[in-house]
Amino acid sequence: MDSAGERDEELLSLLDDENVRTILVETREESRSVAALSDRCGADDSTVYRLVDRLEDRDLLVDHQELDPDGHHYKTYSARVERVEVEFTNAGIEVAVDRREPPADRFTRLYEEFTG
């Protein structure tokens, strides 16, 4: 199997995890912390951190730096994935992912279009 096919298989395997699907659904509309995601998944923080790392590596999740009123920093996460399409072909399985544009990138693009 070629590397693209292996990556597709790895992505399908990742999405097969119920906690991964919960993380992606829970972060679709609102950015959430690992603690909040752990509560929603019913999993410990270390499991959620591991899954968050894997999702970030696949560019399916993006982190945001937040500031507590008491001055502490922490991260929240939001989903970048809009849709995953799986196609079965003679060559194997092909997976296509539609991603959301991160808000900062969208703002920059709109600003450049406006001023350009």
TrEMBL record:
InterPro entries: WH-like_DNA-bd_sf (IPR036388), WH_DNA-bd_sf (IPR036390). This is ArsR family transcriptional regulator. It comes from Halobellus ruber.
